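Run ADGRL2 protein through structure prediction, thanks.
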Amino acid sequence: MKFYHSVFLLLLVSALLLESDSRLHRRTVEGKVIVASYIQSKPDAPNVIRTWVREPKLVKSCNDIKLYGQMNTKGEATIAKDGFFMINVYGNVTYTPVYCDMESDPKAGWTLLVTSRSMAGWNKDNILSHNEGTPTLNADYSILGKADQIKMGTSANVVQYRLEAGSPGHWGGVWEAPVDYSFTHNMNDQTNVTLVAKFGDWDYGPRSIGQRMPWIVEDPTLPAVLTTAERPDQDWYGTIVGSDLGLPAFQGTNAPWIQNLTEAPGAIWYWMRELGECT
Ligand SMILES: *[C@@H]1O[C@H](CO)[C@@H](O)[C@H](O)[C@H]1NC(C)=O
Ligand SMILES: *[C@@H]1O[C@H](CO)[C@@H](O)[C@H](O)[C@H]1NC(C)=O
Ligand SMILES: *[C@@H]1O[C@H](CO)[C@@H](O)[C@H](O)[C@H]1NC(C)=O
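Sure, done. The structure for ADGRL2 protein is below.
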């Protein structure tokens, strides 16, 4: 009796399994995506996906972190808050702290390269690396010397940079530059740049932002250190970082930006975002 009972149960279970299996099969044939709803009901699925994506990837920039750092089950980036992150620029054990703008663009992360708050303490040597251990929007800071390394290996033929002054999203814009342009160039000839987003009603000119990638002025007698100006020996508006050569008009402030509109905006920020996949 007991034996038949067990066989009956077994047959019942098998029949139910077969029934659900054939129902699944039917539903699949009818074109319903039953697999997706099955996986979604498993709470630990995201961990599996994150591990698989993360292991082979050394994050080189804020954009990398945004795109690959952490994903949900749909493969969408979940890092959505601005803040401090560690990036691996060189592919060795050295990590660099950075400040990331993860919020202004839903699909991209921007790496802060330079914050210019004052002209005190800047010079031609430290423009590449200034207060590197303390990335901040609120004090003088630069990791400009790492920018070319960050853009290396991107699959796109352009790189984007963003300038803003006074407050985030003002008096500047987003530019696209050929990927072989250098962030540490020391001449005024990287001019094939395209403004793809404009913040504020300003025009290019000698007393405004210049249509060129910011470049490092090596002449130590000029106050401009990092500028978009064409001739910083004549007009140095459009300058991101100035050095303190004792110019009375600019004591305690930062470099001149746009005449009449925002002469000394109090803060200028320089960001980068590489496009395409970094390797
Ligand atoms: C990583 O590489 C960079 C650039 O070559 C170098 O400056 C740094 O010292 C390296 N770090 C280590 C721990 O080897
Ligand atoms: C300017 O840059 C674009 C990419 O942004 C490139 O396609 C174009 O060939 C460049 N033009 C010149 C004259 O170098
Ligand atoms: C700023 O205003 C002065 C006086 O009106 C004018 O001559 C100059 O061209 C203006 N500068 C810019 C960049 O528009």
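Residues 7-56 have pLDDT under 50 and may be disordered.
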